[in-house]
Write a structure and sequence with these properties.
Blueprint lengths: L2 H10 L4 H6 L4 H5 L4 E6 L5 E8 L2 E8 L4 E5 L6 E9 L2 E8 L8 E10 L6 E4 L20 E9 L2 E11 L11 E6 L5 E6 L6 E4 L5 E7 L5 E5 L8 E2 L1 H6 L3 E4 L6 E7 L2 E7 L6 E7 L4 E6 L6 E8 L1 E6 L5 H12 L4 E7 L5 E8 L2 E9 L4 E7 L12 E7 L5 E7 L10 E7 L16 H5 L4 E6 L8 H5 L8 H15 L3 E11 L1 H12 L6 E5 L18 H11 L3 H6 L12 E7 L8 H12 L5 E5 L9 H19 L19
Parallel strand pairs: 30-31, 30-32, 32-33, 33-34, 34-35
Antiparallel strand pairs: 1-2, 2-3, 3-4, 5-6, 6-7, 7-8, 9-10, 10-11, 11-12, 13-14, 14-15, 15-16, 17-18, 18-19, 19-20, 21-22, 22-23, 24-25, 25-26, 26-27, 28-29, 29-31
């Protein structure tokens, strides 16, 4: 099992292998940040670029493959690198963001930087903190620019320019702006405007020759609009059918002879191939249950091999199973049975490709595939200290909710107890709530629970993403309604299956999941023994007055559309107003610098419980945000959650070789 992990440990950590196996999986290990997140190879196949975490900061690592020597590019101050792109074989662009917390992506600053592949030549191409500086004889001064730049694509046969979309901040306040596309010089940031978007907040799709072909976005009412810009014409053309069907352009194929769209298929979700000449779409993939996740890359840069999707576990569909790329991928998949295997980056000629291997128990490893020698070499492990054989696996399940709607989820059982019954169980509710889903992947909240002997139940309640518009739309205005009932029904399903001990169940979640945890114990007071609300929402009307969502008309539209605009109904479904029904024990976890869910949400509930003389656990970190980020704080959270669960539903079952001293499971 997990051959890639055993291989990686054998290659890099052989002297420590026996010792590591004997040691328990500590909360400190489970709380550590992934060391590497994304890896991309240069177009000439000579360098790697990767996002790496060093002392809590996400930096850009540049590695020369010939000798594996590398350099780190650190953002200024406390920023994190959020994304990066190869503009040419020798130049990398990257964006940065300010940290929002452990459960929200860093907030992009809108700045764009560039650096040479060897780590030299770092410079800001665009941004509000761009100082006045000398940038060469042809441009005397570079000045600060107030807006946000977003990389669109490199341009074939032009190593010195890329396409970027720029949203100006001038006069728009917090509103979505009307972006424009520029051709930008990657050496100094000079740029030339090409086209302006047909709507606010639009995103763009360009072909490989640097021509912007599509724009799309959602209006304040949540309606998708898709536009085409003809190659030999002027002006944007609304694609009415694609807009109505919610078909989104994704990318062009390598020679620009066709584009790929998400699209509806008969009774299913699909990917369509769009022919520019006929304007017709042909379904090339479909699935009756789930939407596509991404287009599968082939060996070469920008080649398209098929579709990746997640119908329970990770799925792979190939457009041409007899192609060289497909046969190579199939051969690699046979080497790593039970894991997800895909190409994530390739050189321009396909001679070298980066392969990513990961699974529910495996955070992932990046390997280098050489097409000439057929050799596969380990490169970087996301979390090399995690041994997959000691982690809890995720098993997909589905069931019918009380109204007949088919729901999907995952069950993680303690390692070594995969056939056990009547286990103490934690219902773990994901945040979002809309457009987000639990996935078959390594989960940093699941493992601290399952490796301490608790069954962990996750359900993709209606409103979750990945199952289509109707599935997501069914959750609109259902905070405390059918979305909550889905969580209840999943819990009762686990009891009926004999998985969970009905007297030993707790509910836990972050952000919206924190809301669902507290709403669960007041709506179903006899179902759960305890609730853990982590950076959660407990007063729904307060969402209209506090936090970063209501600061724009787009955000206000989102709240009215998907949360609801009846103050009385929102108050009725707010846990803070239903404490008379509370029987379960409560733990609240709050970050003092949380901008998404302001700490007042947790503080008000804390005060309300205190006034009622309801004893509860309280973990407040003034310097944390929307989810704990500091590793020591996260480890402390895991330990306090384990202690709280042990007090309320008893210790988890004994899991061999996974316990910390002083915690519920024992090492044998």
């Amino acid at each position: 099992m997990m051959k890639v992990r055993r291989w990686f440990v054998a290659v890099l950590l052989l002297p420590l292998a026996a010792a590591l196996h004997a040691q328990p999986v500590s909360f400190a290990e489970l709380a550590r940040h992934a060391q590497y997140e994304t890896v991309k190879i240069s177009p000439d196949g000579e360098y790697l670029a990767a996002t790496a975490v060093v002392k809590g900061q996400t930096v850009l690592a540049l590695i020369r493959l010939s000798d594996m020597n590398g350099k780190l590019v650190r953002p200024r101050e406390d920023d994190d690198v959020t994304d990066f792109w190869w503009a040419s074989p020798k130049r990398v662009l990257y964006s940065v963001g300010t940290r929002v917390g452990g459960y929200a992506r860093p907030l992009a600053t809108g700045e764009l930087f560039a650096v040479n592949a060897d780590g030299n030549g770092v410079g800001m191409l665009y941004g509000f903190r761009r100082p006045g500086m000398s940038t060469g004889s042809h441009i005397q001064r570079a000045t600060a620019e107030y807006g946000s730049a977003q990389f669109i694509s490199a341009i074939a046969d032009d190593p010195n320019h890329v396409l970027v979309a720029i949203n100006s901040w001038a006069g728009d306040g917090n509103e979505l702006s009307l972006p424009a596309v520029y051709r930008m010089d990657v050496r100094d940031g000079s740029k030339h405007q090409l086209i302006v978007a047909p709507m606010r907040g639009a995103q763009f799709v360009a072909d490989h020759r640097g021509r912007v072909r599509f724009a799309f976005g959602w209006d304040n009412d949540g309606n998708l609009k898709v536009y085409q810009h003809p190659v030999d014409g002027d002006g944007w053309q609304l694609l009415a059918a694609e807009s109505k069907n919610r078909s989104i352009p994704i990318a062009f194929n390598r020679d620009d002879t066709a584009a790929y769209f998400t699209c509806p298929a008969q009774g299913a979700f699909g990917i369509c191939r769009w022919d520019p000449a006929s304007q017709a779409q042909t379904v090339v993939w479909s699935n009756p249950t789930v939407e596509p996740d991404y287009l599968l890359r082939g060996l070469a840069e920008d080649s398209v091999l098929g579709v990746g999707f997640m119908d329970g576990r990770t799925g792979t569909a190939l457009f041409d199973g007899q192609s060289t790329d497909a046969q190579t991928l199939l051969a690699l998949m046979k080497q790593f049975p039970g894991e997800s295997v895909r190409f994530v980056s390739g050189s321009h000629d396909g001679s070298r490709s980066v392969v990513q291997v990961e699974a529910d128990v495996d955070p992932g490893t990046f390997l280098l595939y050489d097409a000439k020698t057929h050799k596969l070499t380990p490169l970087l492990a996301r979390m090399s200290w995690i041994n997959p054989e000691r982690m809890a696996a995720k098993e997909p399940f589905d069931f019918a909710a009380r109204d007949g709607m088919k729901l999907h989820g995952y069950l993680s059982l303690p390692p070594g107890h995969e056939s056990a019954k009547h286990l103490p169980m934690v219902v773990l509710v994901h945040g979002g709530p809309f457009g987000i889903r639990d996935r078959w992947e390594y989960d940093t909240l699941v493992q601290p629970l399952a490796t301490r002997g608790y069954a962990v139940l996750q359900v993709n309640y209606r409103g979750s993403g990945g199952y289509g518009y109707d599935y997501e739309h069914a959750g609109w205005r259902q905070w405390g309604g059918t979305m909550q009932d889905d969580v209840t029904d999943a819990t009762r399903w686990a009891i009926a299956q004999g998985i969970a001990d009905p007297q030993r169940i707790c509910i836990y979640g972050a952000s919206y999941g924190g809301y669902a945890a507290l709403e669960g114990v007041v709506k179903e007071p006899d179902l759960y023994k305890c609730a853990i609300g982590y950076v959660g929402v407990y007063d729904l009307p307060l969402m209209y007055r506090r936090g970063d969502i209501p600061q724009s008309s787009y955000g206000e539209g989102y709240l009215k559309r998907q949360l609801g605009d009846d103050p009385a109904a929102l108050a009725r479904h707010s846990p803070i107003n239903q404490l008379d029904a509370l029987k379960a024990h409560v733990m609240l976890v709050v970050g003092g610098r949380d901008k998404r869910v302001p700490p007042v949400q947790g503080l008000d509930l804390h005060e309300a419980l205190t006034k009622r003389q309801v004893a509860h656990e309280w973990l407040y970190r003034a310097d944390e945000m929307h989810g704990f980020y500091d590793e020591a704080h996260t480890a402390e959270l895991y330990a306090k959650v384990a202690q709280f669960l042990g007090t309320n539903i008893g210790p988890g079952v004994t899991v061999t070789g996974t316990a910390d001293a002083g915690h519920t499971a024992a090492v044998h």
